[in-house]
């Protein structure tokens, strides 16, 4: 089978703040930033992974959501309980310093995990948890 990841989605409540964080702090490329059916379609991705994109979308972007569903999703995002993503990095400590200096909310300072990675965690401007891991020996 020829199956590969193409896109994943992260809910954001302010595209401009999200772009500034993902582009300027994390160094991801903005691949698309266009209006689409009354919404804004923004994708970012690592220059090291040209085939994989993260879609930054409003929490209630699903066209099948009712107004109550959209409101519930916005509340969950505000609480910081929606899932984020896990990134890999060659230098967890250097990445931690850069992201911490941006003012991002620190959830976990770099630490060695018993399962063979060194990792840290932050919240993005919308409150999503982002983890960054460095594999032992990388």
TrEMBL record:
GO terms assigned for molecular function: metal ion binding; methylmalonyl-CoA epimerase activity
Domain VOC: 4-135
CDD domains: VOC_like
Domain of life: Bacteria
Xref: Pfam families: Glyoxalase
Gene Ontology biological-process entries: L-methylmalonyl-CoA metabolic process
Keywords: Metal-binding
Record carries keyword Metal-binding: yes
Name of protein: VOC family protein
Species whose genome carries this gene: Streptomyces luteolifulvus
């Amino acid at each position: 089978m020829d199956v590969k990841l193409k896109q994943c989605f992260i809910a954001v409540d302010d595209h401009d703040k999200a772009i500034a964080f993902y582009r300027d702090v994390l160094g991801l490329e903005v691949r698309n930033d266009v209006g689409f059916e009354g919404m804004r379609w923004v994708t970012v991705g690592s220059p090291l992974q040209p085939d994989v994109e993260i879609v930054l979308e409003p929490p209630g972007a699903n066209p099948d959501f009712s107004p109550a569903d959209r409101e519930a999703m916005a509340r969950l995002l505000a609480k910081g309980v929606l899932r984020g993503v896990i990134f890999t990095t060659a230098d967890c400590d250097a990445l931690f310093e850069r992201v911490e200096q941006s003012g991002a909310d620190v959830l976990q300072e770099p630490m060695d995990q018993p399962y063979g990675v060194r990792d840290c965690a932050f919240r993005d401007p919308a409150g999503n948890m982002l983890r960054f891991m460095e594999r032992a020996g990388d």
